[in-house]
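User: two proteins, same treatment. go.

Assistant:
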Amino acid sequence: MAVQSLYRKWRSQTFAELVGQEHVVQTLRNAIAEDRVGHAYLFTGPRGVGKTTMARLLAKAVNCLHPDPAARPCGTCEMCTTIAEGRAVDVIEMDAASHTSVEDAREIIERVQFRPSVARMKVYIIDETHMLSTAAFNALLKTLEEPPDHALFILATTEVHKVPATILSRCQRFTFVRHSVTSMAAHVRRIAAAEGIALADGAPEAIARAATGSMRDALGILEQLASFVEGPITLHHVQRLLGMTAAAEVDALIAALLAADLTAALRAVNAVANQGADLRQFARDLVERLRAVMLLKATGDRTLLDLGDDEAAQLAQWAQQAEMTALVQWVKLFSNLDYQLRTTPYGHLPLEVAVVEALLAPAPAAQPAAPRPQPARPQPAAPVVAPRSQPVVPAEPPRPSVASQRAPADSPPVAPSPPSEPAMPAPAPVADPPPPPPAAWVAAQQARPPADPAVARAADAELSLLEQLEATWEEFKRDVRPRSPTVQALLNSARPYDVEGNTIVLLVSSSFHKERLEEPKNRAIIEEVLRRRLGKVYAVRCTIEGKSVEPTDLRGKIREARKDELVRAALNIFDAQIVDIEPLEPE
């Protein structure tokens, strides 16, 4: 006869025996004591943290025969014993992974209407709920929302993101957390003592770390070790059975890194490779230990880490020796090795290279930002910017500099006269100024009429409106849909392009969209929604993409100039506005 597994034999039978999940236990206890048990619960969390165990405890609690509600489940009455042994016909436990169809959901719906045979309540425990099909979820919705008074649904899942929101809204949700290494190690010690299994120091913590927060996995490892080892179970046995990296090698490598001893560090890496251990797991263990040292160095707070008492002293000593910049560099360096170690054909070479780089390669220094390259000339017309607080003055043409008129090369140098005052430091040499522009260009600039500030203000207002339309275009289309889904579909191929006074120009992709959008009834719908959103009447016209031309009027040029990021930055910094667009000085 097969021996019962430890995780089944030692499954908690009362709330007091349950390890961890105190927030869930306290809430359910209060609900049972106050007779406020809900009609549907959803238990979520990683594997092996007690979701199914909690579901069975709740099923026992609502059917327990103990007279004191606060003492339920007692674990000793007839109903508690029957449910624990799996003989209760009114507690239906099903695996959604093998009952995914809508027919299974309909069977539940039909059976839930019948009152329980023996128990006080009929309880449905649906494990791995996320495996149900969409049709099965939809079939359960109404029953899950308003089940009969004698029915209770308990759903459990490890992937809550796959459960529809309609199901989540009908359940009281409880999130189960992973068990800590300390609590798991203590529970493993208690069970090992009850089973007569001797555990050496460090073995329970190693089992708990290997289980990664799952109590079921921890008890499975303990059972496997009990069959593998004769006598006390030591840390070496745990590492050998599970193929774990020797903790001594991780510690040796960290000590070598802190001491800047490259030989000892490479010796530790080769010792791990010679043991045949998983190098990826070794790198993960190394990163986890370095992370713990980094957090201790940064905060000095042990509560941020899940540490046993035997590790705290060693990590605290390393934290005092280490430099924070080096720890950060090492964590980044070794955390990038997982993919390389999985794909490389060179064994543990990436790990050796990382060790050498950690000790010998200099830390990357912050490089000064390179100067921004100057754009090549010729350039497009440059905007003339004037502060808003000052009157706008037409731009003056550039004047030739006196310093640009050089003396002939063959003229003899003139001896300087002795200074009558103390000499000032000579200014730094500057580049030669550009040559003066042609006289025709200067005359043309002087003949230009002064720019009109009203034009600039109008261009600013139009650009602001255009930006507002672009930012809220999706909302605008949603407002159009109730009036005409057809117009909304046509607007999906259009976007705001320009504002010309009281006319908004839309850029469309084809002549078909242009003709349909400019039909009177469709244009009236668009203009009405614009009026409601903007509080002003605007006309609408369309232009076809690819046929638009650059603006020729000053207002259009100002709008185009304001779209440039550098121009916008200048306007914001100096609180200025564009008043005119001038062509650049010719070469």
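Protein 2:
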Amino acid sequence: MSEIALKPKQILFLLLLIIAGYLGNYFKLTLFFGVDFLFGSIAVLIVVAIYGPFWGAIASIISSSHTFILWGHPYAMIIFTCEAIFVGLFIRKKSQNLLLLDGIYWLFVGMPLVVIFYSGIIKVSAIAVLLIILKQSVNGLFNAMICSLVVNCFPVNQWLKVNKNKHTISWQQLLFNILIAFVFFPVMIINMNNAMRSTESIESAIVKDINFLSLVFKYDLEYWYENNINILNRITNDLDVVNKNSILNFQEKLEHIQTIFPQFQKIYLVNNLGEVIATSPKKIKSYINVNQDPDFWKLKKYEFSITTNIVSTSENNKILRLGMAIIKNNQFTGAILCEMNIDELNKLVKNIKINQDFYISIIDKNKQIIATSLENIKSLEKFTLYDHKIIRKLDSDVVHLLTDSQKIPAIVKWEKSFYAKTVSLNNNVGFQLVIQIPTKPQIDYIRAIYIKNLGIMLFTAIMALIAAMLLSNKLVQPVLNLTQVTTDLPQKIIAEEEIILDNSIITEIDSLTRNFKSMILALNEMFQEIKRATNTLEERVEERTQELSITNQELESEIIRRQKIEAILRDREERYELAISGTNDGIWDWDLTSNQIYYSPTWMRILGYEHKPLPHLFSTWADNVHPDELQIALSDIKNHLVVCQAKNCEFERE
């Protein structure tokens, strides 16, 4: 903040970048099973490059706050904020290559932070941690590459007037970014497309599998039910409950039936009034008031068969009742009721073997679990499969269920999620069959694939970084050598330093090298000519100096002679002044050449101006001539001047 005095335009652009960073994370690209590709750090790194690490950290905190909503933990915010601070601190001190700095961050700081947070704190699986390491690194490098291209190719600094210097970019850095982009972009797009296609393919296969399993298990369960109903039907065909004298015979038949079909724990035979005629075993105490039982009245209304809800006779004995009406001459004459332990259904469920991870649950009309292959689930527990879940429909019947708890990180939610389908059996059975396929095996499968792809991408990125550095250095180094050699070239030529220009395998640079060599030769010749001219000029200056010295000596002699003459003249003038001052005559003198007039002190004294001398002007004389004689005096002077002038002319002609 201290580095930049933000202006309104800069503040507006900063706010737009922060908003763009948040939207880049909000409009994510989901690759598979909760693995998201984010773009918010592009805008954040632009903020870092323009405004510095302080505003970069602020932008990162704001934009990455969406990851807390998206993934359910704050650790991604910490990692992304550290990225902005790291790049911001070193981009102005150590290097201007933003992409290279970001790669160094993820290699030495970002990856260890992912291991600490996801493995040490969230406790996710090792394969998930490895996936996150690779995905975050590739994502960060991709965003840094986009940011580097934007910052280097668009003069944003100049537009914002953040940097007064002209926007420039080194050729090596430009080549570096372009080479990375040409390698990284295609690989990234291909792998992302493959990941999304793999996810669609896997989920499509899961839908087919779960539909197939539901058909198979529905058939098995309905077959089990029909088989037992058919047994009861054959029994009822041999019974005539109207004849009350056959009770002993009924008892023997029931005991014989139970011996043949041991799955029936108890069998009751009742007449049309609901009276129990016979039971097997014989000594059991009936705890069922058949006459008041709704199921009996359903059978009495000519329903062919019924299945009742689960009844718990004790903690370890939970039974299911089947009923079959006895119809003679189109009249209801009685019914047979059988009790079966629900362990029979549990055996049926657990004996199904398919080479695939899945779970089966059978639900009764009261939403109680009758039988299930799920562990840690007890019979008659309330069925809560769809409670507190985020439901994602794959087709009309198959759904994907994730917990809606905000306290569980998204990656854990996905690992604990599952696909499910609920199938209703026929109306006589009244049960529902629920097929569940856990998501984790599918996630681990595609994670393994994508870890390989991301590993290839990261390896490609690292190789591209190294290749780009070597290639750009190879291409740019001759130009850098030319730059270093030609720096202060005139001084080097003057100092006669050895200048070595190596040839290049690149045609254009080799031509440029030859041109520089020619230029150096030309400059060397020119400097030699200038040096020779300088030496000649120095000789001439020396000769001229000697001449001037002689002339100065002559002038000094002439000045001394003239000074002596001036001294003699001054002495004569002083003697003349003394001679004049010793007389009482007023003397005035008019130099016609310079028009200067001289009045002696005696002249001034005669006129009364001894203490206040008059100016030495012609008017001073004219003003003191008598007015009556002024014109005559002036005329005489004029005539005298004419005569003098005529004499001078004649003298000149002679």
